[in-house]
């Protein structure tokens, strides 16, 4: 999304991609540290060193800024084709974990779980972060069934909810899951879905 080039969306000076990147990175850092309520235009300006007027030229309000920041991490690399389905799922679960812990932070997840405090952020988080990642897992399960590695007739939505939900439940009840969380949850689920 944001590389080193300059973009022009309106008459006037070109917008610096580097300034846009600094704004987004500052917003994501604040999201990790303080949760969505901590991401204000003022806080992002202070954190990034970019003037508020520059931020407002790019975003009408904090929700546009939050959505753009979440979209910055939207791309999910597909797991390599040709590797076993279990390895593909392991790869996706580890990406899911890294995205929640290192990119948006567990405070963002907590805000989503308590979605009535900031419904617009909750909707943006679900649409931009959670749903695309869960959809890739769903696609991997469907492909595994088509390839004959997974048992036919498995409820893919439930399996994805169990996999992703185990991370959320473990985080809520015991803090950050152990480093081998993805392997452990797959060890439990795999026997019931493999062909």
UniProtKB/TrEMBL annotation:
Residues annotated as domain HTH tetR-type: 17-77
Keyword DNA-binding carried by entry: yes
MF terms (GO), sorted A to Z: DNA-binding transcription factor activity; transcription cis-regulatory region binding
Family matches, as PROSITE patterns: HTH_TETR_2 (PS50977)
Pfam families xref list: TetR_C_11, TetR_N
InterPro entries in alphabetical order: Homeodomain-like_sf, HTH-type_TetR-like_transc_reg, HTH_TetR, Tet_transcr_reg_TetR-rel_C_sf, TetR_C
Alphabetical keyword list: DNA-binding, Transcription, Transcription regulation
DNA-binding region: 40-59
SUPFAM superfamilies reported for this sequence: Homeodomain-like, Tetracyclin repressor-like, C-terminal domain
Protein name according to UniProt: HTH tetR-type domain-containing protein
Organism, scientific name: Streptomyces caelestis
